[in-house]
Amino acid sequence: MSEALAHSVTTSGTGLLASLDPLLREWLPRQRWFAGKGRPVTGFSLVAATELLPAGGKLGLHHLLVRAQQPPAVGAPAGPGDCYQLLIGEREALPPRLAPALIGHVPEGPLAGHTVYDALYDPRPAEVLLEALRARARIGGLRFERDPRQEIREGLVPRLITGEQSNSSVVYGDRLIWKLLRRVVPGTNPDLELPLALARAGCARVPAPTAWLTAEADAPEPYVLGVLQPFVQGAADGWELALRELAKGEDFTAEARALGRATAEVHTALARALPTVTLGHAQMRLLTDGMTERLEAAAQAVPALHPFVPGLYSAFEALADLAAEGTTWTAQRSHGDLHLGQCLRAPSGEWMLIDFEGEPSKPLAERRMPQPVARDVAGMLRSFDYAAHSAGTGGGRWASACRAAYCSGYAEAGGRDPRTDPVLLRAYETDKAVYEVVYEARHRPDWLPVPLAAVRRLATTDLI
Ligand SMILES: Nc1ncnc2c1ncn2[C@@H]1O[C@H](COP(=O)(O)OP(=O)(O)O)[C@@H](O)[C@H]1O
Ligand SMILES: O=P(O)(O)O[C@H]1O[C@H](CO)[C@@H](O[C@H]2O[C@H](CO)[C@@H](O)[C@H](O)[C@H]2O)[C@H](O)[C@H]1O
């Protein structure tokens, strides 16, 4: 452990975690953002504990990084367990308005007799975070950083967003939005790295980070724990808009085309801001081997995939064959998990992209690897398919039209038309659909038929 944070993992932190242990075992697996669903939590170890408001007062506030011990997922090697960021509030009694935040009543230990809860639901702790960011505070191993050119106004009223999220977000006075990352790893996080790079490159399609939080803990590199950015007021997200238009039987191709243009602009800016590389035979083999490994692991985890494995595998082999024949591809940094829900349409009509974290279940190094931009394009094509499925009959034609319009828009804004490389696009779409099968099986089993329908199509046809 680095000396800087040695004092954060204190005896009191260890005692605190011991007293919370039984409550957290029950509470953590129920959280939408908990990544280890389907496997019991057998214990916790402390990575860091920092007191933000003193314990035992009217309101105590504890920042914890804890590792959840679990048996490994099917096919995965045993590891130390995922590290989660928790902001624990502590009161003698919880007011009724905070009932949804309840973690439990502590029977013994340093907080005995107190009630602990997820403090992000509570305005006061949320204000404490914003104050610390404004002041660029250093508390224990926590580093609250701010872009010195951007001010944070006082008196912004916080409200937690509740929704389908991998992390937790608080909106401050409709001016700023704070994303507290839940499953955290040490190292450069693309959710901060890429928006900072895009802001430096003058790209206005992505909100520029105003402030961020890092922690020095048990690893040589700090953990990135959260990012504050301007809140796009009055924005509608692409998923809601698409569903609304579908329900009305309205055409969405103009928006799909605009989304294609926005994506190409962000890709162009990223290619200018960060290094690009050429992928030859050896690198493409690694890439297609990765796709194959993910397919095999997915088929182990979700048996419904089995019948389609040979057909899906052929999509990856076709790409490996092209590479063996001498085709090369340019790779660059990209969004990494692009779908309609990551696109915001501002009241001006302009589209913005958010959430550059990448696929949360993948290791950081993999998420930061340059890849052909077809990966993001494939993510969006899958998203039109998802939207169409939610609408039921007639959605197929709608999705095809949106997919075509998106690719045209992408080409109009200076990107290469993704349809000119169908083998690459099919391989990435297949990889994404396989990822979605695992994601849905784990998080939203009712949605599993959506990616499974795509898997059936992709396994039996080579048409995009
Ligand atoms: N800058 C922003 N302006 C307006 N709304 C935003 C902004 N950033 C995020 N949101 C809203 O918050 C939600 C969650 O943000 P996101 O970054 O996708 O979190 P997660 O990684 O947890 O999925 C988005 O779907 C969007 O509705
Ligand atoms: O938004 P996140 O970064 O948390 O991404 C994860 O969750 C998404 C769902 O919320 C999931 O996206 C899948 O469902 C969407 C509809 O809800 C659809 O538009 C996407 O195309 C589909 O992939 C995403 O895969 C996952 O990483």
Automatic annotation (TrEMBL):
Residues passing through the membrane, by range: none
Please name the top-level EC class of this enzyme. transferase
- Coiled coil ranges (UniProt) are none
* Matching Pfam families: Mak_N_cap (PF18085)
One GO-annotated biological process of the protein: glycogen biosynthetic process
- A GO molecular function held by the record: ATP binding
Keyword tags? ATP-binding, Carbohydrate metabolism, Glycogen biosynthesis, Glycogen metabolism, Kinase, Nucleotide-binding, Transferase
Q: What positions does the domain Maltokinase N-terminal cap occupy?
A: 27-122
Say yes or no: keyword Nucleotide-binding present.
Answer: yes
- Name the pathway it acts in: Glycan biosynthesis; glycogen biosynthesis
Cited InterPro entries:
Kinase-like_dom_sf, Mak_N_cap
Reactions listed under catalytic activity: D-maltose + ATP = alpha-maltose 1-phosphate + ADP + H(+)
Give its E.C. classification number: 2.7.1.175
Q: Which domain of life is it from?
A: Bacteria
- Similarity section: Belongs to the aminoglycoside phosphotransferase family.
How does this polypeptide assemble, per the annotation? Answer: Monomer.
**What protein name is recorded for this chain?**
Maltokinase
- Organism equals Streptomyces mangrovisoli
